[in-house]
């Protein structure tokens, strides 16, 4: 078979290890993005048959609690929280997730061994985001239920390996026995079929969902993504934490500093505080950090999250039936 899993009889759902694990209709997952994925986006994606994720990385603990509670009111479908493990108040985030009985947690940016056992003790499904086969194996050993293999094309913070999605997915699939979710450069049903043919059992989509009314990011940022062309994003800040963003005046300052060999301290000072909030949430397209993936060059409009899920799913089905048709 070209991919792992099968359509239901009416072809209006998909059955594989991921859809069973999460209790969802389609193997389509919305990424947990800072300043973009609050309860409105997460609930909209879950209500549309995918898995919506609240991005906790840009939230204070009391804000995350509010978003979890509002998401529970807005959907009776499963949803998840994305939890960066380097978050300073992570213990408070964890307690809110446990107390509110969030069914699924996607962890990232840290060692999954630390919190996975705690979540598993409370019956919570755990997925960890990785950028290499080596870290996928470590995640499996830590007891996670699945991994997101995120390629170099993805927006936001990336791994240092710079492995592209089409190379990464089969390597991770070969290295682990747990289900693999593909991320990075995916915004269409054709791309979904491509990575599933390489061994993924679902896709995680970020940039496409940024350009939806439900995303909490600023309209200026959404329009900048729509306007972005091929080559307008770049992976930078490699000396600190690699991040893919849209080229703007802030990026030029970073590039100039890196080119003359600026120290980590100088780069940290240049980055300052709340640079991502300034760009993506407050809409400062000049001095803000505008995190988005390479696939932005294929995003041409802003549309409701439910339509995005339907578009991806319908194109996936059509491509399965006619792989060479356009």
Q: What can you tell me about this protein's structure?
A:
This protein has helices at residues 17-22, 39-47, 61-74, 90-99, 116-121, 133-141, 165-175, 189-197, 207-210, 219-227, 249-259, 264-271, 275-281, 305-321; strands at residues 6-7, 14-15, 28-30, 52-55, 79-84, 104-108, 125-130, 146-150, 156-157, 180-183, 202-205, 233-236, 243-246. It is α/β, with parallel strands linked by helices and 326 residues long. It folds into two domains: 6-216 and 300-321, TIM Barrel (Alpha-Beta Barrel); 220-296, no CATH class. The two termini are 22 Å apart. The model has no long low-confidence stretch (mean pLDDT 92).
Summarize the structure.
This protein has 326 residues and is an alpha/beta fold.
| CATH architect. name of the largest domain | Alpha-Beta Barrel
CATH classification, class level of the largest domain: Alpha Beta
**pLDDT under 50 segments (min length 5)?**
none
Number of domains: 2
Which strand order spans the largest sheet, edge to edge or round the barrel? 3-11-10-8-7-6-5-4
Q: N-to-C terminal Cα separation, in Å?
A: 22 Å
Content of β-strand:
15-25%
CATH level-4 homologous superfamily of the largest domain: Aldolase class I
What's the SSE pattern?
EEHEHEHEHEHEHEEHEHEHHEEHHHH
Helix content: 25-40%
Can you count the helices? 14
Shape: globular
- Assign the structural class, choosing from mainly alpha, mainly beta, alpha/beta, alpha+beta, or little secondary structure: alpha/beta
CATH fold annotation of the largest domain: TIM Barrel
The largest pleated sheet is described as: 8 strands, parallel
Number of E strands: 13
Rg (CA only): 19 Å
| Global mean pLDDT | 92
């Amino acid at each position: 078979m070209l991919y792992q899993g099968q359509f239901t009889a009416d072809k209006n759902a998909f059955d594989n290890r991921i859809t069973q694990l999460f209790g969802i209709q389609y193997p389509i997952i919305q990424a947990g993005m800072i300043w973009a994925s609050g309860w409105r986006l997460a609930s909209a994606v879950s209500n549309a048959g995918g898995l919506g994720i609240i991005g906790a990385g840009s939230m204070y603990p009391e804000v995350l609690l509010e978003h979890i509670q509002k998401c529970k009111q807005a959907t009776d479908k499963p949803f998840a929280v994305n939890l960066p493990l380097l978050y300073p108040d992570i213990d408070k985030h964890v307690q809110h997730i446990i107390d509110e009985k969030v069914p699924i947690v996607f962890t990232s940016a840290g060692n999954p061994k630390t919190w996975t056992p705690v979540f598993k003790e409370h019956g919570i499904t755990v997925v960890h985001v990785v950028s290499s086969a080596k870290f996928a194996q470590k995640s499996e050993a830590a007891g996670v239920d699945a991994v997101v293999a995120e390629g170099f094309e993805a927006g936001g913070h990336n791994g240092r390996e710079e492995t592209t999605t089409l190379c990464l997915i089969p390597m991770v699939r070969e290295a682990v026995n747990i289900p693999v979710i593909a991320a990075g450069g995916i915004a269409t049903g054709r791309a979904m079929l491509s990575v599933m043919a390489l061994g993924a059992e679902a896709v995680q989509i970020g940039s496409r969902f940024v350009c939806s009314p439900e995303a909490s990011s600023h309209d200026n940022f959404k329009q900048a993504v729509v306007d972005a062309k091929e080559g307008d994003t770049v992976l930078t800040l490699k000396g600190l934490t690699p991040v893919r963003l849209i080229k703007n005046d802030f990026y030029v300052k970073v590039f100039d500093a890196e080119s003359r060999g600026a120290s980590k301290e100088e780069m940290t000072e240049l980055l300052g505080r709340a640079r991502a909030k300034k760009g993506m949430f407050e809409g400062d397209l000049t001095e803000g950090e505008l995190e988005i993936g390479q696939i932005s060059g294929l995003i041409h409009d802003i549309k409701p999250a439910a339509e995005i899920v339907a578009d991806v799913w319908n194109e996936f089905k059509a491509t399965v039936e006619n792989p060479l048709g356009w």
